[in-house]
Design a protein that fits this description.
about 35% strand, 3-stranded antiparallel sheet, elongated
Length: about 90
């Protein structure tokens, strides 16, 4: 029981060291890719309530709504087919 209490008490310390961003800035906001294998590197900046900002491009998670149209890996979006796809970025 004592170990469980310690883990719960430690949680606020982790939050204080790693605050959550208030918003993410992704650039370019609306990349357009023309042609199969065309690619575009994304940049992700986390903005915090205290006014600070941090480049989290390498730490962010990426997902494509239509992997048959566009894939995303290591912050690089690549066209693999015709159509549109939504790229979701989270941190």
């Amino acid at each position: 029981m004592r170990a469980l209490w310690f883990l719960i008490a430690a949680a606020p310390v982790v939050c204080a060291v790693s605050p959550r961003p208030t918003w993410l800035e992704v650039a370019p906001a609306n990349p357009l890719l023309f042609g199969r294998d065309a690619s575009q590197r994304l940049s992700v900046i986390a903005h915090y309530a205290d006014g600070s900002a941090r480049d989290v491009t390498a730490l962010a998670k990426y997902a494509s709504s239509r992997p048959a149209v566009a894939t995303v890996q290591a912050a690089v979006v690549r066209a693999v087919g015709n159509g549109g796809a939504r790229i979701t970025v989270s941190f």
